[in-house]
Amino acid sequence: MNIADHLSSTLKTLRQQREWSLSKLAEETGVSKAMLGQIERNESSPTIATLWKIATGLNVPFSVFITPPESTSEAYDPQQQAMVVKPVFPWDPVLHFDHFAITLAPGALSESTPHESGVIEHVVAIRGTLEICIDGHWQAVKEGEGLRFHGDTQHAYRNSSDETILFHSLIHYPKEKAAD
C-alpha cells in the first residue's frame, strides 16, 4: 500500500470508528469538510501542517498517517516539497513517542498548530542551524544542539540558510494518547 492510499484509508477508518460525520471531523480538526472528503477519497494530498491538525483533532500520533505497516517511507509536503519527514521510530505505544528525521529546504518555513496538552517535543539539529519559533520567539538551534519544549503552543521551524538542513524531532505524547 502506498502512502497516499494508507493516508486515505486511515483517515476514513478513524472517522468511522468514532462515528463522526465529515462535518464533525472538520469541527474537531479545523480542516475543511471539503478537504477532508478529498483526502478520504484520495483526491488530494494534504500538507504536513494539515496532517498535524488532523492528527491533533483525532488525538492520534502523527506517524499513524505517514507510516503504513512495515514502512519507513518519507512523507513529502506536496505543496512545496520544502519539508521531508521520515519516521526513524514510528509511534511506540509503550513509550508514547514518534521520532522523525526532517529536512527543510533553503528558505523553508513550517508552521505547526499546537498539539494537545501534555505533548513535549525534543528537537536536535543534525546538519545546519534550525530556527524554532515558540510562542512568537525565534531561537537558533545549531548543529549538535537540542531544544525541548511544550508542543501545545504555537511553534514553527525555519531554515534561513542557503543549504538544506536536517533535524530530528522526538514527539512525546501524554500517557492517555490513543494509537487507534
Chain-wise SSE layout:
Blueprint: H1 3-17, H2 22-29, H3 33-40, H4 48-58, H5 63-66, E1 75-76, E2 83-92, E3 97-104, E4 109-112, E5 120-127, E6 130-134, E7 137-141, E8 146-150, E9 155-158, E10 165-172
Antiparallel strand pairs: 1-2, 2-3, 3-10, 4-9, 5-8, 5-10, 6-7, 6-9
Determine the strand fraction and express it as a percent band. Answer: 25-35%
The CATH architecture of the largest domain:
Sandwich
The number of helical segments is: 5
Number of strands: 10
Rg estimate, integer Å: 16 Å
- In the sheet with the most strands, the strands line up as 1-2-3-10-5-8
| H-E string | HHHHHEEEEEEEEEE
CATH topology of the largest domain: Jelly Rolls
Structural class: alpha+beta
- The CATH class of the largest domain: Mainly Beta
Q: How many distinct folded domains?
A: 2
Shape: globular
> What is the assigned CATH homologous superfamily of the largest domain?
Jelly Rolls
In round numbers, the mean pLDDT is 85
Query: Distance between termini?
Result: 19 Å
Give the biggest sheet: 6 strands, antiparallel
Helix content: 25-40%
Give the key terms:
434 Repressor (Amino-terminal Domain); 26% helix; 2 domains; 5 helices; 33% strand; globular; four-stranded antiparallel sheet; alpha+beta; Jelly Rolls; six-stranded antiparallel sheet; 180 residues
Describe this structure in words.
The structure is a single chain. This protein is an alpha+beta fold and 180 residues long. The protein folds into two domains: 3-66, lambda repressor-like DNA-binding domains (434 Repressor (Amino-terminal Domain), Orthogonal Bundle), CATH 1.10.260; 75-172, Jelly Rolls, CATH 2.60.120.10. The protein has helices at 3-17, 22-29, 33-40, 48-58, 63-66; strands at residues 75-76, 83-92, 97-104, 109-112, 120-127, 130-134, 137-141, 146-150, 155-158, 165-172. The strands form two sheets. It has a six-stranded antiparallel β-sheet. A four-stranded antiparallel β-sheet has the order 4-9-6-7. Helix 2 packs across helix 3 (33-40). The longest helix is centred in the N-terminal third of the chain and has 15 residues, at 3-17. The model is unreliable at 76-80 (pLDDT under 50).
